Amino acid sequence: MDITINTPALLFPAISLIMLAYTNRFLALASLVRNLHDKYKSEQQNTVIHGQIKNLRFRLRLIKNMQAFGVLSFLLCIVCMYLIHTGNTLAANITFALALVSFATSLIISLWEIWKSNKALELALSDMEGLEDPTIVEYIRKKLDRE
User: Fold this and answer.
1) Nearest in space to 32 (alpha carbons), one of 129, 120, 141
2) Rounded to 5 degrees, what are φ and ψ at 22?
3) Residues 28-66: tens digit of each pLDDT
4) pTM of the model
5) Residue 12 vs residues 40, 66, 73, 77, 88: alpha-carbon distances, Å
6) Rounded Cα gap, residues 85 and 88, in angstroms
7) Transmembrane region positions (predicted)?
8) What are the residue boundaries of the structural domains of the chain, listed by start?
9) What confidence tier does 130 reach under pLDDT thresholds 50, 70, 90?
């Protein structure tokens, strides 16, 4: 398959948008870490806070890796465009494939971070007993019983 210079260029907007989303996640997480740090310093030892800190450290590593693979994908697209420009199609095809793999890896890590984020929210809510969110089936039953 021959690729043109437009092929890797198609990934530029997608990579740029995903990197913006990753940066927003990082900034939100940084704010959360700062708030949690203040809370940790002001309160006594709390197992929920310890669990949140452990989760945040892991999520920060995931976000770092998401961003690294996103940047790598972006750079590989640029290299691919250069190789197409110089007429080295085999190397361009390999580089473009690596860019796609790098982008897919970034997205998979992003999915993992989203999963960990949900676990963190469950941990934050764990100390509020009696306020559990009902399952979808329980929610529908309650709605039908009211009518």
Assistant:
1) 120
2) -65, -40
3) 888 877 777 777 777 666 666 777 788 888 988 999 999
4) 0.68
5) 41, 16, 9, 8, 21
6) 8
7) 12-33, 66-84, 90-112
8) 6-146
9) low
